[in-house]
Structures are given as structure tokens and as C-alpha cells.
Amino acid sequence: MTVYGEPISKLPNVGTSIFTTMSQLSSDHGALNLSQGFPDFDADKRLVDLVNHHMKSGRNQYAPSNGIPKLRKEIADLFSDYYGAQINWENNVTITVGATEAIYASLAGLISPGDEVIIFDPSYDSYDPVVRLNGGIPVRLKLRPADFSVDWDQVESRIGANTRIILINSPHNPTGAILEKTDLERLQEIAIKNDLIVVSDEVYHHIIFDGQRHESVLRYPELAMRSVAIFSFGKIFHATGWKVGFAIASETLTREIQKIHQFLTFSVHTPTQFALADYMEEGLQFESISKLFEKKRDLFVDQLDNPRFIPVRSRGTYFQLLKYQDALNDMALATKMTKEARLASIPISVFYEDGFDDHVLRFCFAKEDETIMKAVNILNAYS
Ligand code: PMP
Ligand code: GLN
What we know:
Layout: H1 18-28, E1 32-33, H2 45-56, H3 69-83, H4 89-92, E2 93-96, H5 98-110, E3 116-121, H6 127-133, E4 137-142, H7 152-158, E5 163-169, H8 181-194, E6 197-201, H9 221-224, E7 227-232, H10 233-236, E8 245-249, H11 251-264, H12 270-281, H13 286-303, E9 309-312, E10 319-324, H14 330-341, E11 343-344, E12 346-347, E13 360-364, H15 369-381
Parallel strand pairs: 1-11, 3-4, 3-5, 5-6, 6-7
Antiparallel strand pairs: 2-8, 7-8, 9-10, 10-13, 12-13
The protein binds 4'-deoxy-4'-aminopyridoxal-5'-phosphate and glutamine.
């Protein structure tokens, strides 16, 4: 058939996301799905009831574009306190459709054609295409393969006249690495010296282990002034399907982000915003969430007993990497394991610009203990 009006692809090299691919393969083969990152336990019933309540009481029309004031105030209060930052709900907080929209709106609002954006590989899958779609040029630098730390000297050496943004993600998906105080201090110095903006994906800020402190850009006043910090209620409240997130940024950066947001989605699901605001008002302890996931990480790692798999200890997020010894590349092993052993994971090479394959798989441990034990038993029996 002749095809009329065939589009010229804006992203010719982009296929279906690895999360969709592996979750589909997992369900096709009845496998245990530790690939895509989502909990297999439910959100708090109280929060679900609150959404119901607000729907039934008629809060069903458009919310204000940038989010309902009560939710933005709760966020501003909590995050100001928690990170010692000065956050004003009216000028600094925008509610978005998940962190995904916050990332898009930030990059779309802040990139001018030809601007370079520094991204660290292995990198979350949306960063590079969003930069390209908005006329930017991704400059992808590898984290150090041994511990996935940032080589800041390398970063400095790659900064040029067109560098505009550094995109960071801590705690880091997919590796579970975290940025430390010294990293943030160096980043602040580099950003100021070169007049850069920092987009900081902090969706796992509440999942950090072994007594470490999350180093938000919001803790560093001079860095915070030139940063966008991005969070996700889906991650905080074990409700990834709700897709509500938010961006915290200076007034000038927020203005540009909101211009994109108003045409991208305009506003976010109204009853959920009211429910989240009420729920936050009742108090929110990030520490208990970290503890919950730390126990799950420990269960996964401590019970694993197969010399073929070597854990790279996760310091945050709900992901655990396993290095493996096998001739197969990571995509082939992840596929084989899903089909034959019925355990799905994510191959890490897809998060590298050059497909670098160090034989590492990612497993999501945001699961009931029983699910984790089933997965570990499969891994222990794997030969
Ligand atoms: N950034 C990272 C690093 C993530 O892992 C995810 C999703 N898991 C997102 C952004 C997107 O978050 P959301 O589901 O709130 O859009
Ligand atoms: N962020 C989730 C992960 O890393 C997936 C989100 C998605 O499917 N887009 O697994």
C-alpha cells in the first residue's frame, strides 16, 4: 500500500523502551518480573481512600496549571525543612505528570538549539532523546566502571562554550550509586565557574542506605539557585501508576519550566493532588522508607549464594546490580533468564551510548520478601 504523509522520524534510532520490552517478555513467559522498577505491594490504603474521597466530593475539574496551592505548600514546607533550603510554594514548585514530565519540561524550557547537556552513562533512558528533541546535544560521559562515581576532571575537560546543563541523578538508576558531599561541592564550583544549569533527578532521594545522607542540590544554596530538583510521588508512595511528580527550582528557572508544562499537560489529576496534600499534612518520614528498602536490599544480597553473580552493593534506589560470569552479552542473558529460568531483569548496556557491556544485570527489589526469596532461589539455582 502506498503510504501518504509518512513522517520523518525525529528519533530514528529510538525503539521501544527496555522497561516495556522486558516487562512484556516477562509476562509472555510467566516470569517473575524484577525488570521494570515498580513495587509489587500496594500504596497505603489511607492514601487510596483519600483519592476516592476527593473524587466523590466533586474535585474532578482542572486543577490550577502549576498544581493546587495546598500540595505545593506542603512540598515547600517539607523540603525547606528537610534540606535546609528556601523554597517558596508560589515561585519555586511545579506539580507535573510524574518526574518524566518534569524532566521533559525542564530540558525543553532550558535548552536552546545547539546547547550541550552533560549526561552520565549508564543513564536513564529518557534523558538523551529529550535533549535531542529540544535541539540540544547530549554529551555522554561514562561513570567509572568500578564504582560508578563521577570523574569530575573529565567533566571539566569536556566543558566548552556550548555547554549549558549538567544532568545528575542520585541515588542513581540503574546502578544504586550515590553522589557524596564532595561531588556536590565540586559540581557547585564547576557550575558557578562555567555558568551552567544543573538538572538533578532525585526521584530516589528517600531511598538511601547504610546511614548515608542524601546530597540534594537543595542543600547547597548557590547550587540550588541554578538547579532544578526533580521528585516523584510515584516513588515516594509506592504508586508509580499515579504519575505525579514535581520540580523545585529558582523563580527564573521555574517560569521557563511552567511555560512548557502549560502546553505539555496544562495540569495534573486533581483528586490525587488533594489526596497527596492531605496525606503529607499528616506527616511523612523519609527515613522509614529507606529502612524498608534497606531490609529488602539486604535480604536480596545476603541470601544470594551463587559465585556466578557478584553484587555491586546498592547504596540507594530499589535496584541491585549483579555482575555475572557468562559468555552471553547482557541482553542475551536477560532474555534467556526470562524465558528459561522465568526471572526478568534489565541489561545495563542499553543505558550506554556506545552499548558498553560489562556483563551486568539490574534487579528491582521493591518487592514482597516472598517475591525476593523466589528470585534469589532462581538465581542460586542458575547454572
Ligand atoms: N527518573 C528516574 C531515574 C526514574 O527511575 C524514573 C522512573 N522510575 C523517572 C525519572 C520517572 O518517574 P515517574 O514515574 O514519576 O515519571
Ligand atoms: N523508572 C522505571 C525503571 O527504571 C521505569 C519507568 C518506565 O517504565 N518508564 O525501571
